[in-house]
Amino acid sequence: MSIDRHAGVVGRPRVTGPEAMVEAVLELGMVPFFENSIRGYSIEEMTPPEFWFEGDELGPWDWKIACVQSGEIAYGKFLWGGKAAFATVEFYRELMNYRRSLPKYQPDEAGSRIMDYVGENGSITIREVRGLLGVKKSAADAAIARLENQTRLVIGDMQRVYRGPDLHYNGWQTASFCRPEDLFDEIPPRAPLGRDDRKGVPGRDDRKGVPAPFLVISSEGEAGVEKSPAESLAFLKAHVLRLAPHATERDIAHLLG
Fold first, then answer.
1. Coil, strand or helix: which one is 145?
2. CA 120 to CA 12: how far, in whole Å?
């Protein structure tokens, strides 16, 4: 499998509607939304130009709602250092296992307050973040984006906003954010939170003082196979190379963080 096949054999890109977009993400497993340094590896490059923000055509900007509401796809800012991307549960789970083991992906004080709120209420909106932290919208957006990149939050739902006397929809959307553990049944609720030597911290291996690996499902379908964060990273690197054999080591390192 490679991204060339998904880009279409006779110059006909694959992503031509919401159903095709969902199907593309499910088959690719993990894919950035926008064009990047790995040629061909994005929803943007798999979409015909006439559907990409051309005139009144909203294209993938609107079609992404179908991905979010499918119940099978994680969407948020979690690749390329915090850029929009899609992943199936299988591949997002591997990214969580790797990211959450690293100190640089641990929430700061503001992030911890947001996560406490989400733990109590199930989800959070940008408006609620502003009220919780007492900050402007730009700061609230940045705080949520950091948590998305840390694999703490994903977009749980999106709704179209209709405005004016004719209830016109011009692409404005509202989103709520939730923990991936709460959104997807396949992700264990006691996920690793990072390296720590303290005892009794959920999601950590107290015997070794290292993050407890996820119980993941192997490609052969065998349930309950433990993977270390390093094994999850190797799995993701190998997958990206299968999709895009031309990707460089530097590209993949930047992609996965």
1. helix
2. 47
- 3-class state of residue 225 by DSSP: strand
> What are residue 124's phi and psi, to 5 degrees?
-150, 150
Beta bridge partners of 211: 204
For the chain, where are the E strands, in sequence order? 30-32, 73-79, 83-88, 124-125, 154-160, 173-178, 204-205, 210-211, 215-216, 225-226
- The tokens for 96 are 């969580």
Identity at 166, one-letter amino acid code: D
- Which sequence spans correspond to the domains of the chain? 3-106+150-256
Tokens at 235, concatenated = 């799995």
* Structure tokens, 116: 């406490």
Nearest of 69, 80, 81, 85 to residue 28 by alpha carbon: 85
At residue 23, φ and ψ (nearest 5 deg) are -60, -40
pLDDT by residue, tens only, the chain of 257 residues: 556 554 443 333 489 999 999 999 999 999 999 999 999 999 999 998 888 876 666 789 899 999 999 999 999 999 999 999 999 999 999 999 999 999 999 999 999 999 999 999 999 999 999 999 999 999 999 999 999 999 999 999 998 888 888 777 777 788 999 999 998 876 755 443 333 332 333 333 332 333 444 444 444 433 445 789 999 999 999 999 999 999 999 999 999 99
Contacts for 9 with CB less than 8 Å, ≥ 6 apart: none
CA distances from 219 to 71, 75, 90, 222 (A): 20, 22, 9, 7
